[in-house]
Amino acid sequence: MSRKTERYPVEEANSLWQIYKTVPFWKVVRNFIVIQIARYTPWISVKNWLYRTFLGMKVGDETAVALMVMMDIMFPERITIGRNSIIGYNTTILAHEYLIKEYRLGDVVIGDEVMIGANTTILPGVTIGDGAVVSAGTLVYRDVPAGAFVGGNPMKVIREKMDD
User: Fold this and answer.
1) Which residue in 22, 44, 90, 94 could disulfide with 68, CB within 3.0 to 4.6 Å?
2) What is the pLDDT of residues 22-70, one digit of tens each?
3) What string of H, E and C letters represents the secondary structure of 24-60?
4) Pair 104, 133: CB distance under 8 Å
5) Which residues form a coiled coil (predicted)?
6) Helix H or strand E encompassing 157
């Protein structure tokens, strides 16, 4: 199954060279500052408040985002994290990708009670179902079924349904 992204072709130079035609400069500056503060904030409730208030993210109650997690700087409002989930240390969640001839945007939806291991990268347009577990160091490049245990680079389904 392919990721759910919107594709925007570009003329002239590569799409990253044209970044401020796709997203306002001051939005990126503000988002960068808020994300850097949140990355180092030791209080989970403050971190979630920063994400909700200044970035427009949807973050569920009792969700814990670990130290050094890198949210998408350009389009963080396209990230949704459900209730009682854990996002592991140094994970990167992207809602955009800039390529040579186009850029793509896609919502990232992480369900309730999801566990994301450290150093994981989640690409745009991906949905991770409720109760899923993503092992550390995984490249999440497609949807993860609810309750599944996945891992690796590239990601593979290790088990379809986790046992309680």
Assistant:
1) 90
2) 999 999 999 999 999 999 999 999 999 999 999 999 999 999 999 999 9
3) CHHHHHHHHHHHHHHHHCCCHHHHHHHHHHHHCCEEC
4) no
5) none
6) strand 156-159
